[in-house]
Design goal:
Length: 408
């Protein structure tokens, strides 16, 4: 592919305007079926049941993150940071592929159909597979954090990376939640490198503070919104019940790829040593799951059909949130009520009434820190440099307990 042809590959992004693919290999990967699959996987799963506009895909996000990575590399180069063309290419491909291991409704799927296998593990396997056709050594090394220039990995994965910069802006835009709006352009313009690690010049400190606050607000207003929790847990219960029936050899409608995982239990080791299995996983997208849920509304199993109907018609669980665990007596009242109403057993009632917890830490000083560089060259963690934020509060892991049960 000629450079002239590559320059013509321009995408109109609603967040950044016109963006282009800066690397020939990145463009070829973008066209690969593994990557095109991300067009069919929503970025925020079932969040559109709360925020109807949240229908953007993981493809959108990966493209946006690629654009921000290109901008960040050029800013660092303009400040004298040594980044070779191979390193730039590697960083761009690493961020382009950072979410390629996500399945449909990723977190729900990870808790049911492919239990114990994280999307990060699958991303590494996809990158390894793509290395057969492309030279991805530098990209893979940056992705895994093994490359000697640490700041390149920090751009891909840290507490202030281009992944987070894009998804906060994008999720805010599509949900309409203005609290998530951040100054990603200014943060990128303030990037620099000190002693091999990524820093933010002190002029950008207020933009970083806003980023941290926006992330906290988005978590509790969008990602962990109680109705989103209700919908996602309902899907988890549907998949769990379907898996349980499949293990009893009960016939279940499913697409061929979905059937593979519904009727079998696979470990990460299976994925590593069975190349066909990764290809089967690559065939899965949101359509496989929702088409099955739609058909399951008429399944003879009362538990599965009821759950499927409720999700499809947005009859979601009522969800209570509080800062301490729910008392067993409170849970039992709700569980006994559903047992009487549906004439089901206590074990079956757990599909409809259950309690768990969610937690979030917005800034963790024990991880890769956000460092602020002052005019005299000194560097301080944002926790010490900020005069606006109470980092002790933000660093604390917030736990909230929830109880889900049918509304009526």
């Amino acid at each position: 592919m000629s450079k002239a042809t590559l320059k013509s590959k321009i995408f109109n992004d609603p967040i950044y305007g016109f963006i282009s693919v800066p690397d020939e290999t990145a463009f070829r990967i973008l066209e690969h079926p593994y990557f095109q699959r991300l067009r069919r996987i929503k970025q925020l799963g079932l969040t559109n049941l709360v925020y109807p506009g949240a229908l953007h895909t993981r493809f959108h996000h990966a493209m946006g993150a690629m654009h921000l990575m290109n901008e960040a590399i050029e800013v660092l180069r303009s400040k004298g940071v040594d980044i070779t063309n191979d390193e730039k290419r590697g960083a761009i491909i690493a961020i382009l592929l950072h979410d390629i291991g996500h399945g449909p409704f990723s977190h729900s799927l990870e808790n049911s159909i492919v239990s114990g296998i994280k999307h990060e593990n699958l991303s590494e396997l996809f990158i390894s597979r793509l290395e057969y056709d492309y030279d991805l050594y530098t990209a893979d090394s940056i992705f895994k954090g093994e490359y000697h220039k640490k700041f390149l990995h920090q751009l891909v994965s840290s507490q202030l990376d281009v992944d987070r910069l894009d998804y906060l802006s994008r999720d805010s835009f599509y949900t309409g939640v203005s609290e998530g709006v951040i100054s990603s352009d200014r943060i990128i313009k303030m990037l620099n490198v000190k002693k091999g690690e990524l820093v933010i010049e002190s002029k950008g400190i207020y933009s970083v503070e806003k980023f941290i606050i926006a992330r906290r607000l988005m978590y509790w207003q969008v990602y962990l919104h109680k109705t989103v929790l209700s919908a996602e847990n309902m899907l988890v219960k549907i998949l769990k019940r379907a898996k349980e029936l499949a293990q009893k050899k009960i016939e279940m409608f499913a697409t061929p790829a979905f059937r593979t995982f519904l009727y079998n239990d696979y470990t990460l080791k299976d994925f590593k040593y069975n190349e066909d299995l990764l290809d089967k996983f690559a065939e899965l997208d949101d359509t496989d799951v929702m088409a099955s849920v739609k058909v399951w509304t008429k399944h003879p199993d009362k538990i599965l059909s009821t759950l499927s109907k409720n999700l499809l018609n947005r009859k979601l669980y009522k969800t209570e949130l509080q800062n301490k665990p729910f008392q067993d007596a409170h849970i039992s009242i709700a569980r006994d009520k559903i047992m009487r109403k549906m004439k089901i057993t206590a074990a079956e009632a757990e599909y409809f009434v259950f309690s768990d917890l969610v937690e979030s830490d917005i800034y963790n000083p024990d991880k890769i820190r956000i460092n602020i560089m002052f005019k005299d060259g000194s560097v301080a963690d944002i926790a010490d440099a900020s005069d606006q934020l109470n980092i002790d509060v933000l660093a604390k892991t917030v736990k909230k307990y929830y109880l889900c049960y049918p509304k009526d």
